[in-house]
Amino acid sequence: MPNKLTIIILISFLFSEEFIYNLGFKFINVGKATISSEVNSDNELTINTLVASSKFLDRLYKVRDQIKLTVNPDDFSLKKIDKKVHEGNWRRDYSAVIDSNSNIITKDKIIENDKLLFDPISIIYNLRNKDLTKGKKYEYHILGIDEIKSLTIEAQGKEKIKVPAGKYNCIKVVPYSNNGEDIFKENGYMTAWFSDDGKRIPVKIELKTNIGNMILKLKKIIP
Predict the structure, then answer these.
(1) Is 218 exposed, middle or buried (0-12, 13-18, 19+ CB in 10 A)?
(2) Residue of 158, 153, 166, 147 lying closest to 217 (CA atoms)
(3) Out of 53, 150, 169, 214, which could bridge 207 as a Cys pair, Cβ 3.0 to 4.6 Å?
(4) Of 49, 38, 47, which Cα lies nearest the Cα of 14?
(5) Are the beta carbons of 219 and 165 closer than 8 angstroms?
(6) What stretch of H or E contains 5?
């Protein structure tokens, strides 16, 4: 039988849900980010993200990252992924479908696979259903661009976090590689803070990039 937390999270996905973030480096806001979920016309759960730099930063380092995920509603593992990434001079579009046998199908190849696959954003949704008691660990396989990487997420305890949306008691979670390989490009990392309540709101997300630590701070929730 599902626990109370799982029921709360599942009920929330019967309706559109959108998180809006200020995007910045330390104390400087340089853009915005959104993470939203909805059930599409085929009764599939979709997760959409947009990271966009401000017009000012565009002149120095333009960022327009768009990701659309179609996921399994029970565990948020991937069924389909569409990425359009524009970071500075680097651009890349990538699409893949995960078939019923977990194989990865792109426009020019089929990659054999027997693991449940996730994107870092779908992991955030999966973790909202997990027991995040300090020391708890969960293993995931993330799909990059034609590659699969293994990582472990560890809950590291509670912190009080202040963001534009307010003050939250949060649980901090940190990923690390299972084999010593870089999880994210340019030796980056991602840390997330979830509200310590039944909603498990992703309050703050910190990403290490090649231009510094990019921080997403929750500004608004659109239910």
Answers:
(1) buried
(2) 166
(3) 214
(4) 38
(5) yes
(6) helix 4-12
Residue 60 CA to residue 11 CA, distance in Å, equals 42
Q: Which two tokens stand for residue 55?
A: 């017009």
Q: Please give the Cα distance from 201 to 221 (Å, whole number).
A: 9
pTM value is 0.85
pLDDT digits (tens, 9 = 90+) for 1-10: 444 444 334 4
Question: pLDDT tens digits for 173-207?
Answer: 999 887 666 655 544 568 999 999 989 999 999 98
| Ranges of each domain in the chain | 4-222
In angstroms, the CA 26 to CA 22 distance is 11
Q: Is 223 exposed, middle or buried (0-12, 13-18, 19+ CB in 10 A)?
A: exposed
Hey, what CATH class is 4-222 in? Answer: mainly beta
3-state helix, strand, coil in the chain (%, to 5): 10, 55, 30
Helix or strand run (H / E) with residue 219: strand 212-222
